[in-house]
Amino acid sequence: MNNTRRKLAQLLICLSTLLAPVQEAFADSQSGVPTVSQAASESFPIFADDRVLKGQNAREDFYFEVGKGRVTGANSYLDLSYSNSTTLLAKASSITVMMDDVPLQSIALDTTNKSPSFLRLDLSNLALKAGFHKLSFAAHMELGVNICIDPDNAANWTTVHKTSRLILSFAKAYGNVDLSWYPSPFFEKGSINPMQAIVVVPDDAQQAEFTSAAQLVQYFASQATDKRIQFRVYPESELTDTLLSQYNAIWIGQPEHWKTRGQQMVQSLKPNETAAQGQGLIGIVPSPWNSAAVVPNLVVSGTAEELVRASAILTDETLYSQLQGQTTFIPLSLKSKEGAAAPAFGGKYSVSFEKLGYGNISLEGRRNASATINYPIPSNWDIEDGAHLTLKFRHSAAIAYDRSTITVKVNGIPADTRRLSKTSAGEGLLELDLKQEWIGSRREINIEVAFQFDETDQSDSSKSSASQLADFCGDTYSGWAVIDKTSTLTIIPMPRHSINLQSLPYPFVHDGTWNTTTFLLPERFGSKELNIAMTTIGLIGRNTLQNGANIKLLAANTANLKETIQSDNIIYIGPLNGLPEFLNGNEQLAIQYQGGKIVSNHPKVELLNDLQNNAAVIHLSKSPMNSSRGLLLLSATTAEQEPAIDKMLTDPLEASKLTGKFILIDNTGKVFTFPAAADPEPVKQEKKKAVAWEDAALPKLSPIAFWLAFAFLVCALAVVYLVLRRRK
């Protein structure tokens, strides 16, 4: 019996030994970063919703990007799901699929597509290289009626369904990777999972190491299509051989801070030129933990100052595009860069359509054509006095002016409609005040400009009925319009005062730069805290100047902490039992950690025992030490609950629940939102008068000045008269 038990125990030990690498690999696979061995095939959703093409000629484009180190190859294809109106003339109606404006295939639109039809189109031979590409669906639709073809009939439609997908299989565009390919293969622009590497820092990372990693994360986040990206950051002691054999890695640290693995990577750097004594290095070396495949590692090694300069190089395309070879030295200095000066609150600020990213917008080919210009209001601004639109445009002169119009809508609300004219054909100008109620509490201004063209001339009685019918039934339109990129939107920015989870990145980002923010982490932090910190930095800082000078790192138990951070924004990451006492339970917080559980301080929020004892919390409030600064808690009752925060920040569906001042997440992942009391309104100065958007052409004179000027003019005329009379 004892022998049987002994053999059984030995068998269990053997099984656990054999399964350990599998379990370790499975745990590592949950990191959200693809391994180097995973098939480089990605499935792109083309449209978020069913896209309806209307009218006689309609087109929808889908833009995507292929990363610098990639090229598409075999097993790339398009799965197209589409349907169309059964009243279309089958012989004259079709939809054409194009890649970069090159036709790939045309499909007849007939009654067989009443229910969604499916087409798989092979794209293996396209070999799409790095850069942006355009997948287009161009439909030509004709509808038979009793009199003639009616291009604007509501029955003229074709739908490209949201289930359509673009599947691309990628191959490496390079033989041996070196710095000239950076940011590939560590970050691939346009990818579904653009972050293709883990980030490694020394245990107990210091300020420069944290800041340098933060700058890289910000830059990668700014280059990604999706604004919510998971970043996986590990302290050296949490690394495993399995992890390092499967993932590309970016190592950032000072040489003396590394232990065994980090020292091994630093010593692998082989400079190809002579450097100053101890000068820092940036290099790419293969992973020594995988002999079967090349797993590139990017190593950034140097002093604190050198790490900052290295991160500046790796986040500026004009600089990193100059890198070559396997290794380069970190320069002794770099020119400093500063962002544009922020506009003063209370003064007029104008932004052109071109500055918003729009060129001249051309509209043609339809009787009704429109374009939408979007202006996102900076997170630290409020708009209280509406705005002013100066819209410049021109259009075709071959239209019936009395029946052709331009209409402007603001956030879906009609603002004005004007008739087009011969004058506006050459140089149209529309000055429009946008009322505050049209903007409301939205954090963006959507300006829709719509043109309606009528080319028929019903006033010409000399035309025969047949000729007028031919005009009406004509299927070509010479109507067109161009919205000029020099058009401007003028607003008066005011400081924002309300604060809630929807207001992020405010109050941590002001005018495109970090407003000094201190990250408070436990004294001994690990990958859980680092993942949340870097994911938060990527989310909040993706559109900021790549400068980590205003990001600080401190331990939550630092001596004299309250005095040190009283002027800073604060982001606390860690267990609730480590929250500094002066932050826990302050009057700005709706919750308090007390007696090992979460207690509600909100008069309308009741928490039951299960949620109190086991939950993660995301809470944004004003700092208890400075009402113009913010406090963000990313915390949990236990360390096991902390990953739920990371998921909440990066999952688009879950992130939509980030509302109000705070949320709780229970141990099953269920999210609880709560009502938030409105912030007290700041005392506002009484407005003297409405904003005058248009300055007067001439200064206004007071009555006294007018009469003085008049008297001077009379005297001058009298003198001239007397002089002329004496000459006679």
TrEMBL record:
Intracellular or extracellular location(s): Cell membrane
Keyword Nucleotide-binding: no
Membrane topology: Single-pass membrane protein
Name used for this protein in its record: Cellulose synthase
UniProt keyword terms in alphabetical order: Cell membrane, Membrane, Signal, Transmembrane, Transmembrane helix
Native source organism of the sequence: Paenibacillus thalictri
Keyword Disulfide bond belongs to the record: no
Signal peptide: 1-27
